[in-house]
Design a protein that fits this description.
This protein is mostly helical and about 90 residues long. It has one domain. About 75% of the residues lie in helices and about 0% in strands. Helix 1 packs across helix 2, helix 1 packs across helix 3 and helix 2 packs antiparallel against helix 3. The mean pLDDT is about 90.
């Protein structure tokens, strides 16, 4: 089990990784509005779901709905972190 005993450690690793991806996508487009941030989050989450689908057909990997969910949660957290960072940098101007 991972921290807090809620889910396995691998789900935490997925979430942390996709936090970076969601943040990176939002930063890459310099997302300003909700729609732009949501698009970055959905894109990162869709990427994670796509990776899970590819793993479904590989004999040495496995598909996991929970993994895809952890990816999406992480991407959403990354988008939220981007919003906080972007607002902070705007207030310093």
């Amino acid at each position: 089990m991972g921290p807090l005993g809620l889910v396995g450690l691998d789900k935490w690793v997925h979430a942390v990784g996709y936090t970076g991806l969601g943040f990176g996508f939002a930063a890459a487009v310099r997302a300003r509005g909700r729609e732009e941030v949501a698009t970055a989050v959905v894109t990162a989450g869709a990427f994670g779901a796509g990776i899970e689908l590819v793993q479904a057909v590989l004999p040495y990997r496995s598909f996991g709905v929970a993994d895809a969910g952890a990816n999406l949660v992480g991407a959403a957290l990354g988008g939220l972190v981007w919003v906080v960072v972007a607002r902070g940098s705007e207030s310093r101007r």
